[in-house]
Amino acid sequence: MIEIAKLQQIASQVRRDIVRQVGAAKSGHPGGSLGCADLFTVLYFHIMEHQPNFSMSGKGEDMFFLSNGHISPVWYSTLARAGYFEVDELSTFRQLNSRLQGHPATHEGLPGIRVASGSLGQGLSVAIGAALAKKMDGDDKHVFTLMGDGELQEGQIWEAAMFAAHNKVDNLIGIVDWNGQQIDGSNDDVLSLGDLVGKWETFGWKVMQMDGHNMSDMISTINLAKEEKGKGVPTVILMKTVMGQGVDYMMGTHAWHGKAPNEEQIATAMNQLEETLGDYKIS
Amino acid sequence: MPKNINDITYTEKKATRDGFGAGFFEAGEKNPNVIALCADLVGSLKIQPFIDKYPERFIQVGIAEANMIGISAGLSLNGKIPYATTFANFATGRVYDQIRQSVAYSHKNVKICASHAGLTLGEDGATHQILEDIGMMKMLPGFTVINPCDYHQTKAAAIAIAQHDGPVYLRFGRPSWPMFMEDQEFVIGKAIHLAEGADVSIIATGHMVWSSVEAAQALAKEGISVDLINMHTIKPLDEEAIIKSVAKTKCVVTAEEHQRNGGLGDSVAQVLSQHHPAPQEYIAVNDSFGESGKPAQLLEKYGLGVSHIIAAAKKAISRK
């Protein structure tokens, strides 16, 4: 329980960082970022074996790929809080000459990022490549990738899904941020995902589900998923989240997919999110 | 060393894709990090011998080219050297965004190796005859673009790219074509000066290099001497070789199996307009799709025949 309390404190700070990054940049994607703050915290501070002293190869480490790159603020905050780079650098988000590009990139050499993302549908394929390389090299660590639910409308995801099952890529854990929202509205309004569990199962994947805001559930589910390695089947976890989780006026709506809060709205959010690790300085 | 144009002859004909298969096999033997991926076209890409010898280093992705590019990017992270192979149309235009984001922008050491480029693919027609790939790929920052001219050069290129750190587009073709580049020093980005001449420069790439040899031999009979350059690498472009040749001849013909827009000719024109303006004639497809037919028929119909190169050379000279 102490561990969970500590993770929740980190997640609260990550959420503050998200709102402050997007607020200062006056642009960015707060909704999905807030919704995934608990997952990123659990992955980087509990589940994954990884080195903040970053190596591109990721040999001997668990690796993470963000496919829905627009939720970069949550990744940047988590990486900084985990020690990949100084937290004060978060103040450069989306500014000229920053390593913290609007969407994650390797071009500027930000530690923690291994491939650019933002144009959707590509992360699962890249994660499969990394997972295959681990198998070839006898590296027994895992590869994780996060996808958006709307992103599953991209055809490449299903090319990759078919491939991973056929090739028994069982050191790969895909996670879907299932918040039911995308830019133009709900998934059901825009392009229904239908029976998502059935779709992945039919493609030959082991499907699990978890509550993306219940850290105990997330830890036990992801640990169960890790035990699937060696069984010849890739695993996907459908993670139920609330877009905007933690900031009341952003919750459960697609309105804050890609919109920045104003000064007053930032202040409101700050009142709802406890400062636990110290805010980064805005330069 | 450049030769006398009449001394350039060919021994036999083989496809450039056969050269790729042979070179890739050798690259794979030399370096255990070399990996092959293919989108259901193993036979066409001539990589079966490698697969037979190193089955654990081959990944069959099925008819899913976008996935192949992403997997290649992921494989490259820990030092693997993936060769992603398919037809040129599906290797570029179909997956341009995947290449742009996961490979080019992300600086991944992925080799995109593409057969069946250009008109000489022949009977399959315009859906498969990509004529825009050089332009698309050369526009991507950091990408190296190579279009070798014969079996030997394609083999050499397939070996050389494994030692080059960075993304590469290697473009080759389907038909049997004269083999004449046996003794060559292949260096990425370094043009090969095939023949010394004074009246007109011909700068050619891919299959058009041999066509330009034939054109230059015919022109020699009329007393016109051609400075002939085999420009196997379109990016990075050997600017020095271009400027040096055109400074001497004062006019140029560029020849390529590609759209006029965005191809080798435009790259040469950029260099000349900045450093040495000179009359230039283009041998290239002029804003058109191809169609079904035999390679020689298609080259003739679309203005890429030997007679067209001869006429273009004379026109360039007349514009001096």
Brief account:
Chain A has 283 residues and is of the alpha/beta class. Helix content of chain A is 39%, strand content 12%.
Break the fold down into its secondary structure elements and pairings:
The complex is a heterodimer of chains A (283) and B (320).
Chain A: H1 2-25, H2 30-35, H3 37-47, E1 63-66, H4 72-81, H5 123-136, E2 143-148, H6 155-166, E3 172-178, E4 181-182, E5 185-186, H7 187-190, H8 196-202, E6 206-211, H9 215-226, E7 235-240, H10 263-272
Parallel strand pairs in A: 1-2, 2-3, 3-7, 6-7
Antiparallel strand pairs in A: 4-5
Helix pairs in contact in A: 1-3, 1-4, 1-10, 3-4, 3-9, 5-6
Chain B: E1 13-15, H1 16-30, E2 34-38, H2 42-45, H3 48-53, E3 58-60, H4 65-76, E4 81-87, H5 88-91, H6 96-104, E5 111-115, H7 133-139, E6 144-146, H8 151-163, E7 168-171, E8 176-178, E9 192-195, E10 200-204, H9 208-221, E11 226-230, E12 233-235, H10 239-249, E13 252-259, H11 264-275, E14 280-285, H12 295-301, H13 306-318
Parallel strand pairs in B: 2-3, 2-4, 4-5, 5-7, 6-7, 10-11, 10-13, 13-14
Antiparallel strand pairs in B: 1-8, 6-12, 9-11
Helix pairs in contact in B: 1-8, 4-6, 9-13, 10-11
